[in-house]
């Protein structure tokens, strides 16, 4: 379990993306559909 880099929600099967030395986790499948519709805007403001 890792938290999605986009929405911050825990994901059962995240997609791992390397950005330089950091590894980011992103939701895949149902997790993305459930979380991103409601929390994508809030997460976007935090990460800017």
Itemize the secondary structure elements and their pairings:
Blueprint: E1 2-3, E2 10-11, E3 15-19, E4 22-26, H1 30-47
Antiparallel strand pairs: 1-2, 3-4
Strand order of the largest sheet: 1-2
Structural class computed from helices and strand pairing? alpha+beta
Strand content: 25-35%
The total strand number stands at 4
Integer-rounded radius of gyration: 10 Å
**Helix proportion:** 25-40%
Q: How many structural units, i.e. domains?
A: 1
Q: Please, could you describe this protein's structure?
A:
This protein is 38% helix and 29% strand. It has 48 residues and is of the alpha+beta class. It has one domain. The strands form 2 sheets. A two-stranded antiparallel sheet has the order 1-2. It has a two-stranded antiparallel ribbon with strand order 3-4. The longest helix is centred in the last third of the chain and has 18 residues, at 30-47. The chain is elongated. The mean pLDDT is 69. It comes from Nitrososphaera viennensis. InterPro entries: TRASH_dom. This is TRASH domain-containing protein. Residues 4-39 form the TRASH domain.
Quick recap of the structure?
By secondary structure, this protein is α+β, with helices and mostly antiparallel strands. The protein has one domain. Helix content is 38%, strand content 29%.
Entry keywords:
48 residues, alpha+beta, two-stranded antiparallel ribbon, TRASH_dom
């Amino acid at each position: 379990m890792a938290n999605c880099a986009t929405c911050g929600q825990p994901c059962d099967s995240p997609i791992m993306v390397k950005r330089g030395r950091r590894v980011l986790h992103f939701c895949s499948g149902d997790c993305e559909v459930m979380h991103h519709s409601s929390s994508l805007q809030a997460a976007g403001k935090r990460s800017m």
